[in-house]
Amino acid sequence: MSVARLRRLVVDLPPWAVDVFLAVFAGVATVYRIGYGVLQAGDRAPDAVGYGIGVAMSVILLVRRRWPALTLSVVAVLWVCYHTLDYPGGAPAVPVWVALYSVAVASRRRAGLAVAGGLLVSDALARTAQTGAQLFDAALDSSTLLFLAALLLGDGVRSRRAWRAEHEARTALLAAERERATAQVLTEERLRIARELHDVSAHTLAVISVQASVAAELIDDDPRRAGEALEVVRSACREAMGELRAAVGVLRATDVIDVHGDGALDVSALAHGLERLQDLATAHGLREPSISISYVGDRCPLPRLVEITAYRIVQESVTNVLRHADATQVDITVEFRWDGLGLEIRDDGRGALAWRGNASSGGNGLVGMAERAASLGGSLDAGPVGDAGGFRVRAWLPVVV
Q1: 8 A C-beta contact, residue 349 and residue 328
Q2: How far apart are CA 61 and CA 369, in angstroms?
Q3: For residues 18 and 68, is the Cβ–Cβ distance under 8 A?
């Protein structure tokens, strides 16, 4: 059997089995040392009492793990009794070593260390008085060093266990922190993908609904315009399919560039920016509402993520107008400022109640727009416009300079 395997077997033993083994080993060693020890002048020959004291010192070791200070106290008293009766000196030392080790390795050891100190001092004084040995004599030092070695061994084992427990706790904490960070990244990615899919599908379905209605109304009276409406439907479907394929491609890719530096997939990087606002405005064809776009301030370069977020907010706002507002006019204002980008989407329809109902029934449009703005440190507010009807969405997307 290899040493490593033997060590694993010892480590895997239950605590009670270890205590029984130590008690038996200490008892056998003590009986042997008492029976075969060298008798000095004046020593009492071993008898049943002497052996009984040695066995009792070993049996008490069975409770050393639960009551280490009490165990050492009983062992020390029996040790003193043994030598007071003039039995061969030093024979029952093995139980003392085990008891000293048990005190030093215990988690609560103040009382036990006090008992250990008293035992060391009393043993040194007794040996000095009995043998006439002086400080640092070999006869005195050998016993004292063995007692100190047992204490130091227990203290070393205790320190190692404490270090191991601290290391395992720190490792578990780091693992939990990594799991929490991973879960947070996955949640953020899931929300971002959900927003992308919602924006693409909702806008496409809104355009299809409007243009399908136009085609149905004009199919008999004006087939040409009905065909144009169906062409808009086909174009919207084609564009939506392209965006969805791109998003799925990013999710499946294993060598996607990490644009964030945190391992997150940048699905938003596949979306459109402000350059596509005009296409968005004309995608629904010639039917109302009429969509106008105005720009305020000098056009300046913006971070791609800011442009994508702005496009998605405008897209979702237009989608909600098409689905709920029954408006005739939508005015989109894009304001370029040195510290960010301002957006305002305003319609003249009756969409305030419809938008509110959509939000209360679990709609994701307003929530998604607010999340997009907040992710950049910006803000978004939406609500009805006065008493004349209509709805307005205002967003601010800051740019860190």
Answers
A1: yes
A2: 71
A3: no
Q: To the nearest 10°, the Cα dihedral for 312, 318, 319, 324?
A: 140
> Residue 124: what residue type?
A
179 Cβ contact list (under 8 Å, min separation 6)? none
The answer to whether 334 touches 295, Cβ cutoff 8 Å, is: yes
Distance CA 200, CA 236 (A): 10
How far apart are alpha carbons 203 and 311 in whole angstroms? Answer: 12
Nearest to 104 by CA among 62, 145, 151, 138: 151
pLDDT digits (tens, 9 = 90+) for 149-169: 888 898 898 899 889 889 999
b/e burial code for range 180-199 (CB count within 10 A of at least 16 → b): eeeeeeeeebeebbebbebb
Superfamily of domain 272-401 in CATH is: Histidine kinase-like ATPase, C-terminal domain (3.30.565.10)
From 276, 257, 209, 260, select the one nearest 237 (Cα to Cα). 209
**Where does CATH 3.30.565.10 sit in the chain?**
272-401
Q: Is this model's pTM higher than 0.85 or not?
A: no
